[in-house]
Structure formats: structure tokens, C-alpha cells
Amino acid sequence: MPAIDILKARQTQVYEKGRDHFTIECNKKSLSGAVSQRACVFCGSRVVLYPVADAVHLVHGPIGCAAYTWDIRGSLSSGPELHRLSFSTDLNEHDIIHGAEQKLERSIRELAAKYKPNAAFVYATCIVGIIGDDVDAVCRKMTKELDIPVIPVHSEGFKGTKRDGYKAACEALFKLVGTAEPEAIEPLSINIMGEFNLAGEAWMIRKYYEKMGINVVSVFTGDGRVNDIKKSHRASLNVVQCSGSMLGLAKMMKEKYGTPFIRVSFFGIEDTSNALYEVAKFFKNDKVYEKTQALVKREVGGIYPKLLEYRKELQGKKAAVYVGGAFKAFSLIQALRVIGIEVVLAGSQTGTPEDYDTLKRLCNEGTIIVDDSNPVELSRFSLEKQADLFIGGVKERPMAMKLGIGFVDHNHERKIALAGYEGMINFAREVHATVTSPVWSFYRKKAWYE
Ligand code: SF4
User: Fold this and answer.
1) Distance CA 353, CA 330 (A)
2) Distance (Å, rounded) from C-alpha 30 to C-alpha 32?
3) What angle do CA 221, 223, 229 make, to 5 degrees?
């Protein structure tokens, strides 16, 4: 296998535990030419807002940007499915030269008449930032005319990282929060943030809390509804999963409405149980605590024997993990440990310095930690560290397959629920089937860049 050099400007974004002793650089624009796996600002906004199912999502830009459709995030809805339709103003040369504000106006008007949405999100893409359309003014005008919130999302692709897209999405959601009042205020109530209802995960998690006696006011944004978001400021607590995407909104709500927040994860038995206990502790209510204990005992008891069976066969295997948010990487490291697998490569697209400190603590000596990585680095380290399995998203799948390494999808395209207790057993089953597949005995692991 040929050695490849890490690009000079990326050397502080690649770290080996036990060998290196520097602060991992992160949260900065991708290096030109490094072929980052990270998507643009617009994609960051789109994946966060997009599960709001009764809103129109209009991409103001050329048709290519609208390739980010429902299929990039299989968020399920229990009611309207407007989010599954993809709308674009389809800008062409004429629009770019003469401006496209009128076209945007006409598009919003037409969509509102046809689909009667409860709100519209208008995404500004790269070219809109360049030609300078006044998206805010058009949205203000259409809000008045149509009597629904028409919200600009400033997600011009070039203006930062995917993380800036999360920020733009949080700012857009914050415009809705507090614009309606609930009929009654429940004292034991929460919002779940950063949960996108892939394969029905938000429904599973909501059910756990309901069994504990907690009322879920709104899920941001899985199976999301505009009216629930409007009333969400009356919840007593924000429970933030995928904190990379939603921590910004939680902070804004704390500042304006005084809503406290906690950070949790629903991946793995340990983190799921903690997520439930943390909420029970917050409410200091004996009944809630007892119900939580009973729930955790029942759920863990139901899956643990099967996990131990998988563990027997998987013990000693190695995994590479590269995901969007670092919080998911933390959970995966712990979940993989439960089934006997060691993580030898861990990284994220949008981690913060604090996230990387936690990753360093969680990982074993010799583990490579990467920020905003690329296929060549990920391939090289997966082979060097002899990973049996790669856990990532759609962009990492072909890379792993070419290397001859098993792959498990843990990103927004997946169709299998991996959150909560049920998700943990699905995850272990997926990992087991992938790692023990006989196909790997016919395939020599090799570097595709040889
Ligand atoms: S917003 Fe810009 S970077 Fe993002 S998909 Fe559109 S053109 Fe590409």
C-alpha cells in the first residue's frame, strides 16, 4: 500500500492518540483541492429544516441545487408530506443577468395557491448570494400577502461550512418559535431537538418519553409541524440530540424564553438510557423517575441477551467511523464497545474543539481522529488500521466497498431505525451481518488509489 502524505494545511486536522499532542483544528472552511466529504451551507440548512412536513421548501437557485431532495433524508411524516416534494425557481442565464426576485415571488404565490402550506422556507443558494436578490424583502412581501410565514434561509453555499447551514436553519426556525400559544401549558413537557425521524426514530423516542409521563410539545424537526414549532417556547426543557445542528436554536430559546436545555444522544443503550434519566432527573418527580427506571430495565433486559450473542462473534473486530456530527461518533464508539468492536478511526464533518477533546478521551491509544476528512485519508487510515467495518454515509459507502471493507449506513439516507433500544438491536444485527458476510473472504483489501 503506498503511503500518502497528509496535505500540509490539514496536518493539524489529523491526530493519532498516543502519538500526537496538539489541539485538533476544526470548524473552518474546507481546504481547496482536498476533496472534502462535507456538503455545502445550503445542504446543512436543507437537512435540518426539510423534515417540517407541512411547509413548502423552495430552493431559490439553479436546478442542480435542488438535487438535495427527500431521498437525501428519509424523514417520515405521520400526516402531510409536502416535504417530499422538491421545488426550485430553476434560475437560468436570463435570471442571473436581470435578477430573479419577481420569479421568486411568482413561485411562492403559485406554490401557496396549489399546496396551501402552513409556512414556506426559501433557501438562498450560491448564485442568489452572488447576484444579490433581496430574498428577505420578497419573503416579507409574501408573508403579508399570503398570511403565512414565508421565511428566508440564508444558506448561500459558498459562505462557510455545513455548520453555517445549521446556523441558518436555526435562525429560520427561531422566527417561528413563540408566534402562537398552546391552549394549556403542561409542566412536564419537552421539545426534542436534532431528531429527524429517519425510519420513524422520532416516534420511538417520543413514545419512551410519553411512557415516562412527559409531554412532547415539538420535535425539531422530525415529523415536524409549523404550529407545534410556533408553540414550542412553552415547553419546560429542550432535549438536544445532534447538538451540532440544533444547539444554536436551544441557546437562542434559552436566551429569549429562558428554556433550559440538555445535550443527549439516542444511539446505543447507554446513551439512550442516559437521555431518559437526564430528563427524569430534571423534573425531580418521583413518579417520572420510577417509570423511567421500569422502562429502562424492561428495554435493556429485552435486548441485552441478543447483544451478547453478537458480541461473541464480533469480539476483536475493528471499525472506522466518519459521521456528520461528533456527538454521533461518541455514541457509536460506546455502542460498538458493547458488541466487542474497537474503533480505530473516528472523525466528523462538523466537530468543535470540545467535541474533539471528548473524542480523544473516548478513543483508545493508536486511534486516528480526523476533522473534515477526504476519501484518500479515510481510505488510507482504514487500511492501515485494518478496519473490518466502515460506518458512515452515502459518500463513504463506495469508498469502503472499493477498499473491500464492510459498510454500515448511519446517515440520513438510511431506512433502518438505529436510535433507541430497538435501534441498538437493529444496529448490532446490521454490523454482524456486514462483518461476518462470507463475501469478504473472496475480496482482497486494497487501496483504490494505488
Ligand atoms: S448552494 Fe452552491 S455549493 Fe450548494 S449545491 Fe447549490 S451551487 Fe452547489
Assistant:
1) 14
2) 6
3) 50
Single-letter code of the amino acid located at 331: S
Residue stretches of the chain with pLDDT short of 70: 1-4, 69-72, 242-243, 448-450
List the domains of the chain with CATH numbers. Answer: 8-28+304-442 (3.40.50.1980), 41-175 (3.40.50.1980), 189-293 (3.40.50.1980)
Residue nearest to atom 5 of ligand 1 (CA): 65
Residue 148 half-sphere exposure, CB side, CA atoms within 13 Å?
20
Decide: 279 in ligand 1 pocket, CB within 6 A: no
Asked if residue 39 has its Cβ within 6 Å of ligand 1, the reply is no
* CB of 65 shorter than 6 A to ligand 1: yes
Q: Which atom of ligand 1 is nearest to the CA of 68?
A: 5
Model-level pTM? 0.91
A 10 A CB-CB count for 246 gives 28
Give pLDDT, residue 445: 73
123 ligand 1 Cβ < 6 A? no
Q: In terms of Cα–Cα distance, which of 228, 195, 230, 188 is closest to 209? A: 188
* Cell digits of residue 93: 442565464
Q: Which pLDDT tens digit goes with each residue over 21-72?
A: 999 999 888 998 888 888 889 999 998 999 999 999 999 999 999 887 666 6
